[in-house]
Amino acid sequence: MSNVDLSSKIPNNVDLSQDKRLLRALEQWQPDYIQWWMDMGPSGFQTTDIWLRTAISVDAEGWAHFDYVKMPDYRWGIFLADPQPERTIGFGDNMGKPIWPQVPGEHRNTLRRLIVTQGDTEPASVEQQRMLGHSAPSIYDMRNLFQVNVEEGRHLWAMVYLLHSQFGRDGREEAEELLQRRSGNPDKPRILGAFNQPVDNWLDFFMFTMFTDRDGKYQLLALAESGFDPLARTTRFMLTEEAHHMFVGETGVERIVQRTAELMKDDPNEDVRKQGGIPLDMIQRYLNLWFALSLDLFGGEISSNAASFFADGLKGRYKEETYQDHLALSDTYRMTLPKEGRVAEEDVPLRNAMNEVLRDAYIEDCQRGVDRWNKRLAEAGLSSRLALASKRFYRHIGIYAGLPFDPEGRFLDKAEWDGRRAQWLPSDADRAYVANLQKAVRDPAQIANWIAKPARGIKGLPFDYEYVRLED
Question: Residue 451: which of 205, 241, 95, 118 has the closest Cα?
């Protein structure tokens, strides 16, 4: 097991104290990071004591410590999963060869691009969510928001460590740029589209952490297979923290659905609006939006870049060890492709379909979450159900980009699609309605009317624990 240095200015298990030049570079970047956090992190709560978990090791039995901490004082550390003895590259043309402990020169630019793209998502989500603390539906939810935020900050540190330690001056410049881009800024936006979308309310937030953070899980799983061992080890530990983020999203939406079902039963006409809840059709529209935006994050369905990443041993498949064929040279993958106003199935060379292989695994995972939500509706005796839209709906990347498919995957006339858009995606009226519900609840024992209490609190504590010590 690796040695953990918790006394350092930057907690780590990578022996930073033995590399004075790297340590000095990271310590010079640290004040810029803190300034970014103060400027673009959670608004209004920087001096508040919050009950947060902090990574202190990579030991599965005791990797985190829980205590009150002010967010600017959070101990953002650098932790890599322990190395796997005698590990070799597990797929592609380099299968069976030794892993790379240092960035291989022939893949330097590609790996830097992969790391920068992943790293850019981490501060972006913090920026998107920075105002949500002011409208938290409960103290429990406020604490969960801040937990997600500080861990996205730690994931940024993980990527910055790789840039500084492996890519020299180019890496240091990229690390600086990660603090310069801004979510939604028209002049200097974040790299990926979903991370420039507004997250204006808690329904957005829960859908984001359900769907967009789940995309992050699958990207990290693919990178955890990488033959570039520092990247693989970094992402393996990031997955440990990412699980809580998806829990926040999946259970958050579930609690909204549960409360909506309760309010429907309380009203003789099942009119949730009169009861101050969020109607199921509105929940479905937000689901459609964030699912579609998150599908785009996997990239094009047919991709020569994805083929090269796999061939070179840089990015594998989800659970690569479960496949019998790790070369993927002879197999194909069946896709539904748009053809002159219709769709037709075609077989695509498997390597070129690696984005789609990962996307389909993601969709299966998302469906399990939706099934859980629908179980709540069934338990309430309601016939309505939520559903994932077709992966052809409202796409901006790939073979379906800009094409007028409806949520069932039917190819429509563009005029019809435009006319029915408000049936499928949040309208201005939807956003105004949800915004009107966003009233802060500050009593630890209470919760907003439009969402149910969780089944339990955090780490064995009750729901009404003082997770956030608000000033009077």
Answer: 205
User: Residue 70: is it exposed, middle or buried by C-beta count within 10 angstroms (0-12/13-18/19+)?
Assistant: middle
Compute the Cα dihedral for 218, 453, 46, 27 and give only its sign.
negative
Q: Where does residue 354 rank: exposed (0-12), middle (13-18), buried (19+ CB within 10 A)?
A: buried
Q: List Cβ neighbours of 1 (8 Å cut-off, separation of 6 or more).
A: 58, 59, 82
d(CA 447, CA 452): 7
Sign (positive/negative) of CA torsion 456, 460, 466, 468? negative
Cα(301)–Cα(87) distance, integer angstroms: 30
Helices (H), 225-300: 229-266, 280-296
Longest Cα–Cα distance in the chain:
70
CA 9 to CA 384: how far, in whole Å? 53
- What's the pLDDT tens digit per position in 176-198? 999 999 999 999 999 999 999 99
Cβ atoms of 178 and 119 within 8 Å: the answer is: yes
Q: Domains plus CATH for the chain?
A: 16-469 (1.10.620.20)
Contact 417, 410 (CB under 8 A): no
pLDDT in tens, 195-247: 999 999 999 999 999 999 999 999 999 999 999 999 999 999 999 999 999 99
pTM of the model: 0.97
Give the 3-state secondary structure of residue 119: helix
- Contact predicate 373/386, CB 8 Å: yes
Q: In this structure, which amino acid lies at residue 92?
A: G
Closest C-alpha among 141, 124, 125 to residue 133? 141
Q: Which of 78, 322, 366, 14 is nearest to 217 (CA)?
A: 366
Give the DSSP letter of residue 210: I
Token readout for 102 is: 């240092």
Cite the DSSP H helix spans in 167-228.
168-178, 202-207, 213-223
The CA–CA distances, whole Å, from 381 to 262, 372, 375, 376, 378 equal 10, 15, 10, 9, 5
* DSSP single-letter state for residue 211: I
